[in-house]
Amino acid sequence: MSSPADMLTLRVTRHDKIADGIHLFEFRAPDNGPLPDFTAGAHIAITLPNGLIRKYSLCNDPAERDRYQIAVKREPNNRGGSVTMIDDIKVGDTLPVASPVNDFGLPPRATDFLFIAGGIGITPMMAMIRQVQAAGKRFRLFYCSRSPETTAFRDILAAPELKDFVTIHYDGGDPSHSLDLKPILAERQNREHLYCCGPRPLMEAVRAMTDHWSPTAVHFEAFSEAETHKASDKPFKVRLARSGDVIDVPTSKTILEALREHGLEVPSSCETGTCGTCRTKLLAGVPDHRDLVLAEHEKADTIMICVSRAQTDEITIDR
Ligand code: FES
Fold this sequence. Notes:
By secondary structure, this protein is of the alpha/beta class. Helix content is about 15%, strand content about 30%.
């Protein structure tokens, strides 16, 4: 789990469109001095002028000490963070930014990496490939995108030192033309660590095809918790086995939120069902798993309470 972030005030020094609907932002200290360092996979949390706080993966080289770069995809249907960033934030603005936190870091002793990115999920991978290459390690990157026009960082990935390790797959927006992941994931080559970031269906497909990989070698990062909510969600009850308390979980809340409102201290980190911190023993009832952490054989008696819900009216957990 990462440590809490310090708050910084940073100046926007670059805001450029780098692909259709995707904009690159650069932040520096007002005195251009060094910033808190970061490792590949880290994100910063930006407080927008309208009060929204949004997390964005850093995409520049972690060796750079004087700037943070992020790429933002304009998502008009989401809750407004990306639209505010792209439409309202200008070069010269200053914004409160929490220093980098990393829930998606690379294990220092691993030597081989398989990166699978979908769309704007490429952002953490851009920092990762730079860190991996600087350390003399190896990677393969598969980058799924709709078309060349919507593909950020195409020019960088075509550089001579990178292009042999990069496959960009265009599906034209047609799921039937998606990248065939089966041959890529059939075997874990050279004890690779797999990192996947992209739309939920891509991550779910990768999760389903890696049950035979070591769970510690497969890592996901989700864009937002909102992707796990469904219109068909129903309220249910959670029984706490140790106290006997029964807690209501309405459709508007996760189990984690309901437990905290009940006064329980519950550890969490990503709150998107990807890091494993909130793993909880399930004692009774039928869960509705929505995480990307659990292997098939774990699903009968374990639940990730930051995203998963219940199929039955009540579940019992070991708390
Ligand atoms: Fe990360 Fe629940 S807090 S999986």
